[in-house]
Amino acid sequence: MGRRLLFNFLILCCSLIIIFVTNTITTAEAAAYNQNKSTIKAFILAGQSNMVGHGGFFERDAKQWDQRVPSECSPSPAILRLDENNLWVRAEEPLHVNLYPLNENGALGVGPGMPFAHKLLQLNPDLGIIGLIPCARDESTIQSWVEGETNGRLVERATAAERFGAEISGLLWWQGGADAKSRSGAEAYHSYQSRFFEQVQGRFGDIPIAQLAFRLPNLYKVDEEALHVPFNEDKIHVTTDGQVVMGAVLEETLMCRCDRMA
């Protein structure tokens, strides 16, 4: 019995050492990125709940996520996330955790950001480090992205990423449902959206934008209905497997119009 207890104790100690070393390496890597020692190709994730990511949560109990993370969404040393304190950390699902009060209700799940980054690295193996800048907000209107708190938070976070040496390389945009609730909101949408994209490209350069709506210069459309992506039982939020599809398609849509990054 004594030997068995000693053996179990040694196993536990080894496990703790492995965990400590792993976390130390991750912390050291993140510190290097946060001290402007490495260039990061950064992509802004903006929009509403499907960009936030609700893949894998149950509508009957919105605070329950099934915790399933496909390989296309798994953590990678080459994929970072700008956290709620505007610091680079190792990216993992859910990407938008702790950013906004509506995102703190436990209903967060898988979104398109991680599969987008994995697909981008698969097709550009020498790209280096991908940085994801989560900015999406549940139930946000297009007007809030032009002149509200949501707009200010996006600029603040992307600017912070630039200070750490990141190159803002694109915007992924998935939004519109909140503005479809009224005729006036729908009629004003195009004008506000054009202004938003002009603001982003005016501030961060003529970056490509991939989204689900109107066609504008340097803007490329993805039609989720044509892709027949599966939805959760609420018929609003895309499932985990659907988010994997959308992430890959967003990558293809964004990058096939641009020079492949190297």
Topology:
Elements: H1 2-34, E1 40-47, H2 49-52, E2 57-58, E3 61-65, E4 79-82, E5 88-90, H3 113-123, E6 129-134, H4 142-147, H5 149-163, E7 166-174, H6 183-204, E8 209-211, E9 219-221, H7 224-227, H8 240-255
Parallel strand pairs: 1-6, 1-7, 4-6, 7-8, 8-9
Antiparallel strand pairs: 2-3, 4-5
Organism: Punica granatum
Keywords: Hydrolase, Signal
Protein name: Probable carbohydrate esterase At4g34215 isoform X3
Structure, explained:
By secondary structure, this protein is an alpha/beta fold. The protein has two domains: 1-35; 39-255, Rossmann fold. 42% of the residues lie in helices and 16% in strands. It is built from eight helices and nine strands. It has a seven-stranded mixed beta sheet, sandwiched between helices. Strands 2-3 form a two-stranded antiparallel sheet. β2 (57-58) and β3 form a beta hairpin. α3 crosses α8. It is globular and about 50 Å long. InterPro entries: Carb_Esterase_6 (IPR052940), SASA (IPR005181), SGNH_hydro_sf (IPR036514). Keywords: Hydrolase, Signal. Residues 1-30 form the signal peptide.
